[in-house]
Amino acid sequence: MTDSEVVTFGEPMALLLAERDLPLDAATGFAWSIAGAESNLAIGLARLGHAVAYAGRVGDDVFGARIRRELRAEGIDVSGLITDPELPTGLLIRDSPVDRPITVHYRRSGSASTAYSVDDLPGTAIRAARLLHLTGITAALSASSFQACKTAMIMARGAGVTVTFDPNLRLRLAGPDEWARIVDELARHADLIFVGADEATMITGGVPTEKWFFERGVGTVVIKDGGNGAVEHTPGSSTAVGVRRVPLVDPVGAGDAFNTGWLSAWLRGLPVDRRLAEGAAVASLVVATHGDAIGLPDAATRDRVLAEGADIDR
């Protein structure tokens, strides 16, 4: 894992997605794929040509074996993905019906990912990477997962590795007060924050989002606001970009896809306008397809989309 440009770890889940746009209670078939904020980002960055290492825990079951196989097939280093001999791989079952709310069911309580701990961290890889990316989902799974996240962030910054963090709030994992505590503590060890505008209202207590994070030592804050686009803030500077308009097929995974596009541009040393534009382009390709990661593009597809230019509504 020491040759990886990006290291991330999280909760890999097997996604069973209802087919034919049917609501979950009427579904007759399911498509199988991988779900998880960090695995989405790992897949996305690998497709865009970056060397990525992904760590975590899966069960010693068919779901865990297939997750490992699928991630490896994407070119991701999974040597830090541990097989737990006792606890199962987490499951996510959902639909994506047209013109009605999405129904999501998790089977994650007591999963292998909840047992992730400091002892599981790929320390050598983290210290050797350019970037460590984490989300609040992993931190909220258990006390040991939270401690692993915090320790990894401190370890990375101590080695001069850039740390990025997306709260990615899930209210089924914790209530607003607990989320505010998690984000408050972990943001103090991050260089860059990705956060949804709706999430920020539950965290910052009415303080402007960028100000709240700047006060905790974060240098860059990227606020994602769905169809309204995104804004990148640094102290003294703000830059906004709109969205690329596409037919909305499945909104799940849009935030992870935006992070993927933005981080790829950052890793390649591109300026703020291009970072935001690439984030918007990658997100548009994901929401126009079913599933969390199926629409993530390769670099050639991303560049063709960006060459159209006018599709980025600034």
TrEMBL record:
Pfam families: PfkB (PF00294)
Gene Ontology MF terms in the entry: 2-dehydro-3-deoxygluconokinase activity; ATP binding
CDD domains membership: KdgK
SUPFAM superfamilies according to UniProt: Ribokinase-like
EC number: 2.7.1.45
UniProt keyword annotations, A-Z: ATP-binding, Kinase, Nucleotide-binding, Transferase
Residue ranges occupied by any Carbohydrate kinase PfkB domain in the UniProt entry: 23-298
EC top class named in words: transferase
Family statement: Belongs to the carbohydrate kinase PfkB family.
Protein name as catalogued: 2-dehydro-3-deoxygluconokinase
Source species: Microlunatus parietis
